[in-house]
Structures are given as structure tokens and as C-alpha cells.
């Protein structure tokens, strides 16, 4: 059986994380999500096809023993799947998976036990954000209703399918949606009752918005076992589970409250405070008198001294000037809101700090308000209070510097 990973999406809702990496390469414990999913699939098949766009072709060349297929025509999930049609035999059954999903191996096992077309379904607390599945008493598909205002159930499309070759004939019958895309769910609806709905109750997450990345890392961190392959100096206190990878150095005076992940060749301290559910990537430097709480710090970033980072995502190769602070709680303690594709949405979190894109530089004494996004390559000048989103490559200059330059 072949498996197809659909990885050609733009990942706009995940910006600024996706300013510099494809969505399926977001890190889970310092390891790309797509590699985790490939490892699961290889327990069942050696024939994996990945549909990509030309923009990120170089990223995918690092993957071994997979077939890369560029989506050259059309937009949407159905157009992406159509790109692999020539690779699928007439009598083949094959798996199709959205490449930005985090899930457990049992999700795949459940589908493989069904003959013919099948769709994986899971329960969601926010079904109106997804395609809601309606099924009959024998678990045959009646319809997928996309993002209904009043969902008929909390059972949603999990984005994992098993198809026969017939799916391509149904794709040829659908029309472009109001979003300007060919939607795979429209083709599945045409198949209708010939699709078996398989309910899955394990871990599943669509990493579609930045704060989802924090939650996914928390889940996988909970499943890890204590290990220390690094170097720990005297007068370091570790309370709870800590995964410390090879080459990492924990310097004197550092206090760590697990669960925590510290990647290869990272340097922590001296006198740093690392709080629960912090994930620190490879070659990261967390220096003196920093406090890091429930955040994802990606590879090669530097937070040298006197900073607080709470409930935040800091992408690769970021450098914080001394005294850079991320605020993570509103005065009214309501859920933090974030701008996603020009729409203000609630994160569902009372505590959410900043989402900082790759290669960002901040000056000294910078304060970043809750839910603010800073685009990749931006510069934040000293003394700034960042109270709005910052565009990719923007130079954010505080008002006192603007006044002095105009006088």
C-alpha cells in the first residue's frame, strides 16, 4: 500500500513560523513533524509520495527514500492529490494524509482494517472550525459539512483517508469552491455512502495556528522518558522530568522544573530558570538570569540575559537583546486574541506570549505584548513596546526615536 502526504499548502495561518519553513517542518521536540509522520508510515509501507510546491523544494530534498511530486496545477487538497494520479495503480488502495497533522500510530492502524474507501473521524471541542462528519447508523458517510456555524455533531474530518483509485474520477467531477480551490472533501462527498467513517479516539492535532505548536510539543514531551546525555555543572537543580540531549551544557545556578526538553549542544545558564513544558532546540543559548516558561525556542536562537519568555514561540536564529520581555497575560485575564489572516481570533488561552519569526533581532529593554506576532527578519529597536503585529522584514522604531529623528 502506498501513502501520500499532502504538503503543498502555504501555511498562512501559521505565520510567522512559516515565513522561513514549510508548515510540515514545524519542530516537535526539535524534530520536524513530517519526519515523525514518515516514521509512522514506514512501519506499514516503504512507498511514500509527498506532494510539495516548488517554493519549498529545497527543504524536502533532505528526506530519504520518498518520492517528491510537485503540484504544478490548481489549488487545494484535491488538486494536490490529483498530482500523484500517475503514481497510483488501477487496483491500488492508498493512504492520504495532510502533512501538518500530529497523531498517534493507532490512527493509521484503524484505517488499514477497513476495505475500500474510508475516512478517519475524531471528536473536537470546536467542530465549527473543521469539516463536520455526518454518518448513518452503520458508520457510512452521509456528508462532510465544512465549518458550519451550528455543527450537527462534534465529529470532525481528521484529514486522514484510505482511497481506491476511483477517487481520481470523482475529483474530475468537482468544481472550484468559493475559496478558489478544488476541495478533496467535495470529491469525498460525491462518493458518499461508499466511504466508511472510522472513529479515532487517540491524540490528534491540526497544527494550524501558532499556539497549536505549543500544545503539540506538550503532548509529546509528556510521553518522553527522562534522559541526560549532556553535561551538568555543580549547583544545578533539576526537579521533575528533563530530557537533555547530547552536547547540551547546563551551567551552575540553573533551576529546571520539568517536564523540559533541551536539544543538542544547547547552553543553559548560568543562573537560568527553566519552567515546565519548555522546549529548547539544538544550539540554543539561554544565558544568565533568564526565565523561560512553556515556550518553544527553535534552533540556533539566543536569549543571552535578563529576559522573560512565557507561553511563546521563538523561531530559529532569533537574538534577544538584554531585557527583552514577552508579556503573556492580559489585565482582564480574558483569552488572548491573535490576528490570523486579517481576522482577530481567540487563542483559547488565558496565557499566550509572542510568536517571533526567524532571524528577528531585538534591542535592549524591548517589551512585547500578549499575542503579538513578529515577522521573520524584523528588527525591534531598543526601548520598544511592541503592541501590534510586526511585518516580515520591518524595522519597528519606538516613538521616542521617531521624534528625535524628525527634530
TrEMBL record:
Pathway: Nucleotide-sugar biosynthesis; UDP-N-acetyl-alpha-D-glucosamine biosynthesis; N-acetyl-alpha-D-glucosamine 1-phosphate from alpha-D-glucosamine 6-phosphate (route II): step 2/2; Nucleotide-sugar biosynthesis; UDP-N-acetyl-alpha-D-glucosamine biosynthesis; UDP-N-acetyl-alpha-D-glucosamine from N-acetyl-alpha-D-glucosamine 1-phosphate: step 1/1. It catalyses: alpha-D-glucosamine 1-phosphate + acetyl-CoA = N-acetyl-alpha-D-glucosamine 1-phosphate + CoA + H(+); N-acetyl-alpha-D-glucosamine 1-phosphate + UTP + H(+) = UDP-N-acetyl-alpha-D-glucosamine + diphosphate. Its EC number is 2.3.1.-, 2.7.7.-. The keyword Cytoplasm does not apply. This is Bifunctional sugar-1-phosphate nucleotidylyltransferase/acetyltransferase. The keyword Isomerase does not apply. CDD domains: LbH_G1P_TT_C_like (cd05636), NTP_transferase (cd04181). Residues 256-338 form the Mannose-1-phosphate guanyltransferase C-terminal domain.
